[in-house]
Amino acid sequence: MEEQDLRSCREDGPFRGEICPVCGDEGRGLMHPDEIEGVSRILAGMLRHFPENYGVRMDAHGWVKIYSIVPAIRTQKRRYGWITPFHIIALAKTDHRQRYEVNERDEIRATYGHTIPVDLSDLPDDNIPETVYYQTTPEEYEFIMETGISPSDKTYVHLSSTYRKAFVSGLFHVDNPLILDVDTQKYIDSGGRILKASHEVYLTKEIAPEFLKKSEIEEIELTSDEKSDIKRVKIKREERSRERQDLA
Predict the structure, then answer these.
(1) Burial of residue 44 (number of CB atoms within 10 Å: 0-12, 13-18, 19+)
(2) CATH classification number, 6-110, choose in 3.40.50.620, 1.10.10.970, 1.10.510.10, 3.60.140.10
(3) Which of 116, 165, 210, 224 lies at a C-alpha separation of 20 to 30 Å from 231?
């Protein structure tokens, strides 16, 4: 999805695009796409992976005071010296992937993607679809059907709302993702719990093999934006791999 400017309407609040989708007003500019990407990367690192690197305090449920984020960003990235709490809140509330959540105490957290221990048990667990999806590989399939799914590099198992979402997410890591159905009703009836992190992402702790089966294969046609994003991520991964080899 092509990034758009982040703007704010005096009447209807922040939005992405050229005009307010509610009233049609141009509003005032807050961030350009490159600034959105830069600040989002900082937030991801701070809220998902290493808050200690930024000197911010995170509670057990992943919440961080927004007022502490602003000076942390300004200190580490001087080119964002203009940023305010309003910029952070506007970015979070308009994020189309719903990666962030803001509460009434002026705190923010990432709703998924953590590699540090975080208790997200307070996320909603109602209205879960009958089937959600998990991306793996043909090579890992037999092992999963013997042992089930548990988190690898993340705190929770991440599940997708649709086959397409799982398949596209898998392409960021491998060329031939294999998609599994997760029978959520059977899993929940057995005592399992699935949390809704966004409109596309669901979380759980682990899933036994009896709740899994291969999905029926669907033909997926990628958009130009998806192709570009996948190519960009793979190039960066290869660059990081070469850098590590050079340092070894």
Answers:
(1) middle
(2) 1.10.10.970
(3) 116
pTM over 0.85: yes
**Residue range 224-245: average pLDDT?**
84
DSSP-assigned letter for residue 97: T
For residues 47 and 176, give the distance between their C-alpha atoms in angstroms, rounded to a whole number. Answer: 30
pLDDT at 245 over 90: no
Identify the residue whose tokens are 């990081």: 240
Q: Which of 194, 234, 199, 197 is nearest to 211 (CA)?
A: 194
Domain boundaries, the chain: 6-110, 131-214
Class of domain 131-214: alpha beta
Q: Where are the beta strands (DSSP E) in 40-125?
A: 64-65, 100-102, 107-110
How far is Cα 118 from Cα 60, in angstroms, rounded to an integer? 6
Q: In the sheet where 64-65 sits, what is the strand order? A: 64-65, 107-110, 100-102
